[in-house]
Write a structure and sequence with these properties.
The chain is α/β, with parallel strands linked by helices. The protein has 2 domains: about 450 residues, Rossmann fold; about 100 residues, 2-Layer Sandwich (GMP Synthetase, Chain A, domain 3). The chain has 18 helices and 26 strands. Strands 2-1-11-10-12-13-14-15-16 form a 9-stranded mixed β-sheet. A 5-stranded parallel β-sheet has the order 4-3-5-6-7, with helices on both faces. The longest helix is centred in the first third of the chain and has 17 residues. The chain is globular. It starts with 20 loop residues before the first helix and ends in a 17-residue tail after the last helix. The structure holds adenosine monophosphate. Adenosine monophosphate (AMP) binds next to strand 14, strand 20 and strand 21.
Length: about 600
């Protein structure tokens, strides 16, 4: 191996939340972490919203700013913990008055505005289940997730409702209520959230909540079939809080900005729950990424801890020069990144341009919280995801020809020797672990073998116990930090009359990590023209929104497996000009036979 660059832990290492990794890792227990939470009064259980909001009512945090929301126009709205307490009580009462029961699903289709945070936490207070939708989704992913998740209530804006939902409302017969934000008139078939909130009491007592009650439903993409609804329970807050303290070094005095949208798991676990459960001030920005805008948010909101994505950091890196001389970023004390591989040069760039190294960490929708990270007190190995957090046992499993862990008679082999590639696996049992895929027990079962949860990622561990991401073991695409299921994109493209078949891959991209690229076979009578390519791109965009393919190539001879599936792996090899590897499972072209 080449000489490894190591960034030594700085002076801050002596005052961070976790000073001695080895010691903490050895002595940690989740039961102990659970004891640092309040629990519902009277021993009535554990509720995420109580830990995030209500528990602060008896402390000096009551008047502390909980949410600082920067609007698209730059206007700032502050909500103290007390404001949030009252607003979330009202929202819970709205649900109660509408007859929404425990366990019923509330979907949000909202930007990063105060109503989103109130809806999330108010839903949890009612012990109903919150499922967030990414507001840049097109109508198809929205309908699919709301049908699979049995959405009973949707909270959205009048504009998003009219543009994406109204036309398909009839295909969602179980959707009882659509509540719209804003002060304007509510479109037909919807009710004004503001009016409903004004008509209910600001007092609400959270009903008894079993820590195993379902709280959050996060849809994630697989290689085949429909998106999977990963079930998370109230107990998860134990991990949200502990991991934010360890991996983000978060404290009540911090001003914390998690740039991920709450439509994705990072934006929910760390963009809502974790910072509030710690009592910090959470900054949100309704605007989209823009180098200057983001630097202004960091400067003006005096952000101290920043959690963002490699794509955003690479875009900032393109901005020539040293950001600290243009902007006052002196308040920033800790930066972390997640969601895709963080290349070593970005970590080093951070040190030069932002004055701080960037701490990569790893987790996924199913794990609910950070599992592996470069922690504040650790030396950073740029390019590595870091080491398992206290309470997390991670290993590398020997893999078979399909890239996944080799399972023989229910047994797997843990690779003890350093630097060998294999499937990253975790010992089940941490509090934020998903409890199932909605209505798919069989798929859930397949995620475990030999006593391990199989992550679907290929990684290696070096001699110092640092983990290095190698690749995903499946065809799922990671574009700008968002997981995109190729099957979902292929299915939409195949609804266009010109398309006979489609194969979708992630094409490496210097900024976004991967771009969604589709190869399509045309039906007879259609010609591969530039106009048709543009039409298909627009078609994808209209139906899928932000996860639509950016590039489309025509290909009348897509490679297939013997069972007739498009070989995405081979399409990718061809796209990259790589050797095609083991093609034994490919269908033989007819001229070979
Ligand atoms: P999601 O479930 O959408 O959060 O995506 C989880 C997946 O993102 C993981 O299984 C990895 O493939 C990828 N991922 C997350 N964090 C990292 C990281 N730090 N380095 C490399 N890949 C990552």
């Amino acid at each position: 191996m080449t000489e490894q660059l190591i960034l030594k832990a700085g002076e801050q290492a002596v005052s961070c939340n976790l000073v001695d990794y080895q010691h903490e890792y050895r002595d940690f227990s989740w039961q102990e972490a659970r004891r640092s939470l309040s629990g519902l009064p009277g021993g009535r259980g554990l509720n995420i919203a109580y830990e995030a909001v209500d528990r602060h009512m008896d402390t000096t945090s009551r008047d502390h700013v909980a949410l600082r929301c920067v609007g698209k126009d730059g206007m700032v709205t502050d909500l103290t913990y007390e404001d949030l307490f009252l607003a979330t009580n009202r929202f819970a009462n709205v649900l109660r008055e509408l007859g929404v029961a425990k366990g019923e699903r509330i979907f949000t289709l909202l930007g990063r505005v105060p109503d989103l945070y109130v809806t999330v936490l108010g839903t949890l207070k009612n012990v109903s289940v919150l499922s967030p939708l990414f507001s840049a989704f097109g109508p198809d992913p929205i309908r699919e997730r709301m049908s699979l998740g049995d959405g009973r209530v949707l909270v959205t804006t009048p504009e998003l409702y009219l543009r994406k939902v109204a036309a398909m409302r009839e295909s969602l017969p179980r959707l009882r209520h659509v509540l719209v934000t804003g002060t304007g008139p509510a479109p037909e078939g919807t009710s004004s959230l503001g009016e409903l909130m004004a008509g209910v009491s600001p007092d609400f007592e959270i009903p008894p909540t079993d820590p195993e009650d379902m709280a959050l439903l996060h849809f994630t993409s697989g290689t085949t079939g429909t998106p999977k609804g990963a079930i998370h329970v109230h107990e998860a807050v134990v991990a949200h809080r502990a991991t934010a303290s360890y991996a983000l070094d978060l404290r009540p005095s911090d001003v914390f900005w998690c740039t991920a949208d709450p439509g994705w798991v990072t934006g929910m676990s760390y963009g809502v729950v974790a910072p509030l459960s710690i009592g910090a001030t959470l900054v949100t920005d309704a605007g989209e990424f823009d180098t200057r805008r983001w630097c202004r948010v960091l400067q003006e909101q005096r952000v101290t801890v920043w959690y963002t994505s490699p794509t955003a950091l690479r875009m900032l890196m393109r901005h020539a020069g040293d950001l600290t001389s243009e902007y006052d970023l002196s308040r920033l004390r800790f930066i972390a990144s997640v969601g895709e591989p963080l290349n070593a040069e970005v970590v080093v760039w951070g040190l030069r341009a932002l004055g701080l190294p960037i701490h990569d960490n790893w987790w996924q929708t199913e794990t609910g919280a950070i599992m592996i990270g470069n922690l504040a007190a650790m030396d950073i190995k740029p390019g590595s995801m870091g080491r398992p957090l206290p309470g997390v046992e991670a290993v590398i499993l020997e893999r078979g020809a399909d890239g996944r862990a080799r399972v023989i008679d229910g047994h797997v082999r843990v690779i003890d020797e350093p630097d060998a590639d294999g499937e990253l696996a975790l010992r089940p049992g941490w509090p934020s672990m998903f409890r199932g895929y909605l209505d798919d027990q069989e798929r859930y079962g397949r995620a475990f073998a030999g006593g391990w949860y199989l992550t679907g990622d290929i990684a290696r561990r070096d001699g110092d116990g640092y983990f290095w991401f190698v690749a995903r073991a499946d065809d799922v695409i990671k574009s700008a930090g968002h997981l995109v299921g190729p099957f979902e994109v292929e299915s939409v493209l195949m609804r266009h009359p010109a398309v006979a078949e489609a194969g979708v891959i992630g094409k490496p991209d210097a900024v976004a990590g991967e771009l969604v690229k589709a190869f399509v076979t045309l039906n007879p009578g259609f010609e591969a023209t530039e106009a048709l390519r543009r039409e298909l791109i627009a078609f994808g965009r209209r139906h899928l929104g932000a996860v639509a393919p950016k590039e489309i190539s025509f290909d009348q001879s897509l490679p297939h497996t013997r069972s007739g599936k498009v070989m995405r792996r081979l399409l990718k090899c061809r796209e990259l000009g790589l050797p095609e590897g083991d093609v034994s499972s490919l269908e033989r072209p007819t001229h070979d036979v």
